[in-house]
Structure formats: structure tokens, C-alpha cells
Write a structure and sequence with these properties.
Elements: E1 2-6, H1 11-22, E2 26-31, H2 38-44, E3 48-51, E4 64-67, H3 84-92, E5 96-98, H4 99-108, E6 112-117, H5 122-135, E7 141-143, E8 155-156, E9 162-166, E10 171-173, E11 176-179, E12 188-191, H6 205-217, E13 224-228, H7 232-239, E14 245-249, E15 256-261, E16 264-269, E17 272-278, H8 284-299, H9 304-311, E18 322-327, E19 338-343, H10 348-362, E20 367-371, H11 376-379, H12 387-390, E21 396-400, H13 408-411, E22 419-422, H14 425-435, E23 441-445, H15 453-462
Parallel strand pairs: 1-2, 1-4, 2-3, 4-5, 6-9, 6-12, 7-9, 12-13, 13-14, 19-23, 20-21, 20-23, 21-22
Antiparallel strand pairs: 7-8, 10-11, 15-16, 16-17, 18-19
Helix pairs in contact: 1-4, 5-8, 5-9, 6-7, 8-9, 14-15
């Protein structure tokens, strides 16, 4: 089969393309941003890429067009369609489907699907679960919204019965406004947490809870729902009806709980120690992610003790507290470098959790939080009032305000001199350069490329003059 993917360079659609190619299909695709690293990864798989969404691509005559949710019926100010190829597909009646629907029919059918849902931690927990099942010899397939360092790729077909997938609540396509995850029909469903997000498509938290309940409706009675026992929103979801076995985690009274520090803790099942995790990750959020992965792996037949031992070798995911540079400032001790991190955090709760995890790791050392409100929710200003709360544990904060429809300086005013705002990345780098001290931890947070700020910071720090220079 020849499939042509619209929006192929997105994380999900790029992973789908890799799976389709591995399954033996001919795959081509197009996107508005065909650039590395995704373009390099796809071309290395033998996938031809086209820049843009021109109607001439209809001449490729694939067996099926697979449409990503980046595609819409929107029009430019001139009145011309923003996605001419989609208009041509509709005009001639060419066959098309959504990415999640294609995945459901061609990859997930007949497999034990383990789906990881939640506002935060989906990517990391999915990667943990895939690593546990792989280490147990189950040869799982997986599709992760990031690159797990243990695997080096975001998607793999796998030869075993299990398939682990990051289950996103965002909508499926312009013609299917259901959440992506309702297509996956999991036997094991993980509900990590649930907060308001995606303000561009959901009116309120209740609307998202409704979608999560739709997911529960697809889990068989012989399946398992793994749910965070600390979340009132998830308790409401379960209260609407659950027809499967449930296993809770997180709270002291949950089925799976933890005792000890996030980097070194006992795993308790019904209050009794059954495993121990000692690893390099920090933060309570990762401890909760581990409990969720262990509870889900248990349903696939991997004992908690074995799963916990495997997590000692888990290397996290790219862009999750990834160290991008360590630079000794001129005249400073070599053992007090400035460390530059890259992290995917963008929701206020995720920002707070990420800063807290770093604070637990570095103690009293200074943390400079450098972030851009880039997600659709943050661009709309739906959660701007939560930003001072999310940044409480940072010593200084620097916000990139370019492209926002709201006043970031006003939103961060409660932080006083601890917060600065700039409308360009270069200006933001200059602000950080003026404030940085030996031993500082520069935590860059964005769900995008952030204008290459990590390299720009490293270059700016290296350019600082030595005393007397």
C-alpha cells in the first residue's frame, strides 16, 4: 500500500510514518516545516518528503491519504485555501483517513494495547513502560511522543503481542473531533493525571473529563485501568462508570504507593513492599510515573520487582531535563560550571513540577527558569495567572513574550525583580547573560525549538570576557 501523510513532520505522524514503513508500506508525506531532525529521520527510512500542501500532490495517486490534525479547512486572507491538497482530495473523492484511525486498523488491531493518557508525564511514562516490557523479553511495539534514550527512536512495530502508545486527548482531525485516544481501544489504560489544557479545543475541564470517560468505555472488562489516586478529576471520571479492573497509584491508600525519596524508594502493593527503585531520575512526578508504569506492566505479566529493577537502567527521554551544555565561566572554579538544560515543560503545573525536581537535585544552587508560553493554551492566556505560582522555586525567571496576545510583564508582576520579559530570543539571552553566576542552573522550558536558545546561551556564556580581558 502507498500512503501519503499530510503533516508528516509532527511527532505523532512522523512516528506513524516510521511504523508504516517498517510494516512494508510505501510512505510519502508533506508538511509546511520539512526540516531536521524529523526530516533526516524520515528520509533515512526511505520516505520521500514534499514541502507544503500543494494540490499537485494529488498526482501521486496513493492508495490512501492519511491526514494529520494540523490540516484544516482554513483559508488565507486572500480567500485561498490554506491546505490546497486537502481541498483537492475532497473535490475528487480520493480516499482519506486520520492518523489515529489508520493506526488502529493497521497496527493496533488484535494486540494488547497499553495506552498512557494524562495531561502530564505521558511521554516519559510511555517510554518507561516500553522499556520495562522490552527488558522482560516481550518485544513490544511502541509509539512515543519523544525519543526514549534507551531506544533511540520514537516508534517501533515490535514482534510481540503488546503495543505501548502515548494516548493524547487532543482532537483526531478536522473531520473527527474526538480525542485521538478513543481510537486505540486499550486493554491497559493509564490515567496519569488530568488538568485543564488545550484551551483551543476544550471549553473547560469537564469537557476533557468527558473525553477521558469515552476512553474508559473502550477498555474491556478483562482489562485494567491504572489511575492516579491523587487526582479528584480522575475520581470524577471513574465515578461516571468503569467496567474494568482498576489499580490506583500515588496516594498512601492506593494499590501501588511509594515510600522514600524520588530517586530511591520502595514500591508498596496494598501497603506491603514488593519492589525497590533506585535510579538517576529525580522529582515526585517521575516517582508517580514509575508507579504507573509498574502497575501497567504488572497487567502485562511483568512482576513489580522485575519492573523496578529495569527502571534502574532507564535513561529518560530527550528534552526531559536534558543537559545541553556545561560551561565554566571565566575566572570561576572548574567544579562550578553553568549548566544549561532543555525540557519540554509548558503547562504551569509541568513548569512547577520541573523546577521542583531540579530544586531537589541542586539544593540551594541558583535556578534560572527560561521559558516561552508557546502551547495553544498558553498563547491564549488561559493560565497566565498561574505562572508566578509555577515559578516559585526558581531564583530568577525569564519569559519570551514574542507572539503573545497578552501582557507577560503584567502576568509576572507579582514576582517583582525576580522576573524579566523579552520579546525576542536574543534579548532574552542578553538578559540571562547579564545575570548569570558560576554554578547556576539554566532551565530552558518550551514545547518547541525556542529559537535555538540553548546554543545561543552556550555561545553567550563562552563569549564572556575574562577578568581584565
Amino acid at each position: 500500500m502507498h500512503i501519503h501523510i499530510l503533516g508528516i513532520c509532527g511527532t505523532f505522524m512522523g512516528g506513524l510514518a516510521a511504523l508504516a514503513r517498517e510494516a512494508g508500506h510505501r510512505v510519502t508525506g508533506c508538511d509546511a516545516g520539512v526540516y531536521p531532525p524529523m526530516s533526516d529521520q524520515l528520509r533515512a527510512l526511505g520516505i520521500d518528503l514534499i514541502e507544503g500542501f500543494g494540490a499537485e500532490q494529488l498526482a501521486l495517486q496513493p492508495d490512501l491519504f492519511v491526514v494529520g490534525n494540523v490540516v484544516s479547512r482554513a483559508r488565507l486572507p486572500t480567500g485561498a485555501p490554506r491546505f490546497p491538497l486537502m481541498e483537492a482530495i475532497l473535490d475528487v473523492g480520493a480516499p482519506y483517513t486520520s492518523g489515529p484511525q489508520w493506526l488502529s486498523e493497521h497496527v493496533l488491531q488484535g494486540r494488547h494495547v497499553l495506552a498512557v493518557a494524562g495531561t502530564h508525564g505521558k511521554t516519559t511514562t510511555t517510554a518507561m513502560l516500553g522499556w520495562i516490557l522490552h527488558s522482560a523479553g516481550l518485544e513490544p511495539g511502541f509509539l512515543v511522543g519523544g525519543v526514549p534514550l534507551n531506544f533511540g527512536v520514537s516508534a517501533k512495530l515490535g514482534t510481540g503481542k503488546c503495543f505501548v502508545i502515548e494516548a493524547d486527548e487532543y482532537d483526531t482531525a478536522f473531520f473527527d473531533k474526538r480525542s485521538k485516544f478513543v481510537h486505540y481501544r486499550p486493554r491497559t489504560a493509564v490515567l496519569n493525571n488530568l488538568e485543564f489544557d488545550h484551551a483551543d479545543i476544550f471549553d473547560d475541564l469537564a469537557a476533557i473529563e468527558r473525553q477521558f470517560h469515552h476512553l474508559l468505555r473502550t477498555v474491556p472488562a478483562t482489562g485494567r485501568v491504572v489511575v492516579n489516586g491523587l487526582e479528584e478529576s480522575l475520581a470524577r471520571v471513574l465515578h461516571r462508570g468503569c467496567w474494568s479492573e482498576t489499580r490506583s497509584f500515588g496516594a498512601a491508600v492506593s494499590d501501588f504507593s511509594a515510600v522514600g525519596e524520588p530517586h530511591d524508594f520502595d514500591v508498596l502493593l496494598h501497603g506491603k513492599p514488593v519492589a525497590h527503585v533506585r535510579w538517576t531520575l529525580g522529582g515526585v512526578h517521575n516517582q508517580l510515573n514509575a508507579l504507573a508504569a509498574i502497575a501497567a506492566a504488572d497487567h502485562a505479566g511483568v512482576p513489580p520487582a522485575q519492573a523496578a529493577e529495569t527502571l534502574a537502567r532507564f535513561e529518560n527521554v530527550k528534552r526531559r531535563m536534558e543537559v545541553r551544555a556545561q560551561i565554566a565561566l571565566p575566572g570561576s572554579p572548574a567544579n562550578a560550571p553553568v549548566t544549561v538544560y532543555d525540557d519540554f515543560a509548558h503547562h504551569p503545573t509541568a513548569i512547577r513540577t520541573t523546577v521542583n525536581g531540579l530544586r531537589r537535585r541542586v539544593g540551594t544552587a541558583r535556578i534560572l527558569a527560561i521559558f516561552e508560553p508557546r502551547s495553544n493554551t498558553m498563547k491564549l492566556g488561559a493560565m497566565k495567572a498561574q505562572l508566578p505560582w509555577s515559578l516559585e522555586e526558581a531564583d530568577l525567571s525569564f519569559c519570551h513574550s514574542g507572539g503573545l496576545g497578552w501582557d507577560a510583564s503584567e502576568a509576572l508582576a507579582p514576582m517583582g525583580a525576580r522576573a524579566q520579559v523579552a520579546d525576542t530570543v536574543d534579548a532574552l539571552v542578553a538578559q540571562v547573560q547579564a545575570q548569570v553566576q558560576p554554578g547556576d542552573h539554566l532551565l530552558c522550558m518550551s514545547n518547541g525549538g525556542f529559537g535555538g536558545i540553548h546554543q545561543k546561551l552556550a555561545d553567550a556564556l563562552r563569549a564572556l570576557k575574562r577578568p581584565g580581558g
